[in-house]
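Q: Got a minute? One more chain.
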Amino acid sequence: MAFRNNSCFLSCGHLNINHCRRANVQFAQDFIRFNYDIVSVNDPYFWESKVTEFPTGIRKYFYDNKPLAGFLVSNPDIKVFPLKILKKLVAIEIELSGEKFLMISVYCPPSEELGENMNEISTLLLRFSQEKIVILGDFNAKSSIWGPINTDKRGNIVHDLIN
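A: Always. Here it is, folded:
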């Protein structure tokens, strides 16, 4: 996904690594090769409870112990202001070329209810309602709106948030 206006170009993406070391290593190489500015990561590989395998030039925004969501930022021109760093949800405000964005990375395990994460997101959306907002994540929700499958309860909850 890319955002572009007259003064700003932002290349960003989202990836669920599924706690796979090999995927983490490959993605670390691709991150640099494809020149991403910022990427939301879900279910990263970690060693001794910390996210590993990324070069030191990439800034990492993850919970300290066995994180499930976070951000990687490679562009040194992006100013990052961490707002909330939880195990399953990370919210940062970024600024690039005078443009501000609220960015949220969220992972909702299929074995847990969506309530806690949805409450956190709703609070952030209300607090930063005047900013450009990007939510990237894996809600483990099914909906005919974003795929050729029947909508489940979680899909309805996410759809309500979108509306």
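A: Residues 12-162 form a domain with the Deoxyribonuclease I; Chain A fold (CATH 3.60.10.10).
Q: Perfect, thanks.
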